[in-house]
Amino acid sequence: MVNQAEEYTMENEKQALKAWQTKGAMGKVHNIGTWILRNPQRRDRFSQKVLQARGESYNGPLLLHVRNITCWSSDAESIDTAFELRDALDELSE
Question: Which domain holds residue 16?
Answer without folding.
Answer: 4-93
